[in-house]
Amino acid sequence: MRSHSSVVGAEQKVTQQSKTLERFLQYLRPYRKDIPIAITLVSIGAITQSVGPFLIGWSIDNLIAQGNVRGLFLMLGILVLIYILGIAAIREQIMRIGWIMQGLLAQLRQDIFLKIQSLPVSFFDRSEAGDLMSRLLNDVNTVNQAFGQTVAQMLGNLLSLFAIIIAMFAINWKLALLSNFVVPLMIFTTGFFSQWARKKFRVTRETIGELSTKLEEGITSVREAQAFNRIDLNIREFALLNAANRDANIQAVAITSAFLPSIDFLNTLATGAVLAYGGYLAVTGAATVGVVTAFLIYVQQFFRPIQILSQFYTQAQSAIAGLERIFLLLDEPAELQDALNAQEMPQIKGEVKFENVSFGYNPNQLVLKQVNLQAQPGETIALVGPTGAGKTTIINLILRFYDVSDGAVKIDNIDVKGVTQASLRRQMGIVLQDNILFSGTVAENIAFGCPNATQADIEAAAQLANVHEFITSLSEGYMTQLGERGAPLSQGQRQLVSIARAVLINPRILILDEATSSIDTRTEALVQDAIARLLKGRTSFVIAHRLSTVTKADQVLVIQQGEIVERGTHQELIAKQGIYANLYALQLGANSTR
């Protein structure tokens, strides 16, 4: 006897499944006008299939037995017309329901992508790109396989089943009861296998997500893997995940392979029972040969829908497991939302204030502690300090990728929490150490933040970023197609294109995060010149480990362990002979020994 907790657990699973399916069906709302047409077509197909055996049995008793050849040919003509009508209705229903389901699934993919794009940066700190891709592609594809065209077949077979049952009882209720005696056994068998399969299919969805993550990591980090001689270890780790996914799928397939023969056995059992008892009724004169013949056809038709419905129910377990993962993502709370009364950020002048700002990615561990800073419009603020000191966190708070734990970040004396994120970031530009370029033309990459820019605007931005001459030297100029992450451009060339991207949106506040590292000396000179032009008239925050690049900054802030320990101009901090002066001397000495 099962314990109370196991019963409650089973009830909760059923309730969760019901909620998942109910939510999935909400995607049908845009197709309310199409659904009645589809159901009508399904009904026509079901009726035509159920009428056929009845007419065949009637023809045996009333036409063939009487030698009525003319009537037999007339009946054949009627049967042909009925089946043609049924085929046309089934074809149209499959097309219409398929169109509905594909539209539904397209909207589901759109919702997933929209959710991913709108989630805060903090979500991606704890999530894996491969798993998110798996939900968008693999899980939706599983739903497509289960519901895409099977729904049309399921509805058709469900109505056919009802029509067949009505016809069977109308012809001979005794044979009808005999034919249906295996239905409870089928329901029990389906319930038993589906509960077993549901667990296995949930495991397959989880393992394919882990596998996708490992695959994505293996593709994007292949250079590092080769450089660190880690290929064999990566292959072994992938093989373990691949084997786990294989085993999960094999177990799920094993359940399905055991389920279908069980249904076939019950089908054969019912057919044998009808044949034996129907034959007895025919011999004793209690039923005609035509009735028995019609019943044998009905029995075959009766179990075919049950087989399809049972198979669909099993496949649906995998789809529901995928839907559960999808809806978990869609229900992910938007931790960083605009306030209900959020206003549009007015034209930014460029004053930035941190007022007693504290922040921690983990509530129990602060990264910034009571930070105060002020940048006047047009000033360049350099942030220096060791890795992990909190420099990038300051940048993240200005862009409002995160909200402060305490204190306030203000721009032009307006708390960034009180304005919409879009209107805030629209007036900011960012150039990172490892800027991402996208598959597309060079012009499209420059216009990434300003897709309506004219060609003249794009070229003007490229000229200001010192990259126009290089672009025009390419085979197709600005229309040159770039590959993933900007291949085949070099790091420096990608950096110049990124600067042009920032120039084009004409930001009032500019973020530069290690923008001149990892590039050669000649390209660095071009980048430095482009950055100098970009900084003019803009408030800018520059993170740099090369202290020689921030000597002209209006303020240099030295960050250590989440606090500003020194501040001033380059000359003031050198004269102070403190932390900054020591760092600068160390770098100057290191450079002189090269």
From TrEMBL:
Keyword Transcription regulation set for record: no
Annotated ranges, domain ABC transmembrane type-1: 37-318
| Alphabetical keyword list | ATP-binding, Membrane, Nucleotide-binding, Transmembrane, Transmembrane helix
Q: What is its main location?
A: membrane
Membrane topology according to the record:
Multi-pass membrane protein
TM spans (from-to): 35-60, 72-90, 154-171, 177-197, 274-299
Classification via Gene3D superfamilies = ABC transporter type 1, transmembrane domain, P-loop containing nucleotide triphosphate hydrolases
Task: Show the SMART domains listed in the entry.
Answer: AAA
Q: Where in the cell is it found?
A: Cell membrane
UniProt domain ABC transporter: residue ranges? 352-586
The protein's matches in Pfam families, at most eight in alphabetical order, are given as: ABC_membrane (PF00664), ABC_tran (PF00005)
Q: Which GO terms describe its molecular function?
A: ATP binding
PANTHER family listed in its UniProt record? ATP-BINDING CASSETTE SUB-FAMILY B MEMBER 10, MITOCHONDRIAL, ATP-DEPENDENT PERMEASE MDL1, MITOCHONDRIAL
Name of the featured protein: ABC transporter ATP-binding protein
